[in-house]
Amino acid sequence: MLRCKKHGRGRYSVLFDTYYCADCDRWLEKKCENARFCELCQARPKKPSMGRKGG
User: Fold this and answer.
1) What residues contact 2, with CB distance under 8 A and at least 6 apart?
2) Is 2 among the domain residues?
3) Which run of H or E residues covers position 1?
4) How many alpha carbons lie under 13 Å from residue 29 in its C-beta half-sphere?
5) DSSP H or E run through 2
6) CA atoms of 18 and 35, how far apart (whole Å)
7) What's the domain count of the chain?
8) What residues are paired with 55 via a beta bridge?
9) What pTM, to 2 d.p., does this model score?
10) Does 4 reside within a domain?
């Protein structure tokens, strides 16, 4: 599990298959190296709060 350096916790988004910090409203993982070919990375919004449904 990835944790935010500032808040010490992280949440997992099943929808986007990545960890994020809800307090910072930022992703804790970068997109794939080949993000243009990854459906999850293509669908991932700029901030986690923009894609909360199902996350």
Assistant:
1) 10, 19, 28, 29
2) no
3) none
4) 18
5) none
6) 13
7) 1
8) none
9) 0.85
10) no
What does the chain come to in residues? Answer: 55
The answer to whether the Cα torsion of 39, 22, 14, 32 is positive or negative is positive
Phi-psi region of 40 (alpha: psi -120 to 50; beta: other; left: phi over 0): alpha
Residue type, position 40, single letter: L
pLDDT tens digits, 7-54:
999 999 999 999 999 999 999 999 999 989 999 999 999 999 998 654
Can you give the three-state secondary structure of 3-54, one letter per residue?
A: CCCCCCCCEEECCCCEEEECCCCEECCCCCCCHHHCHHHHHCCCCHHHHCCC
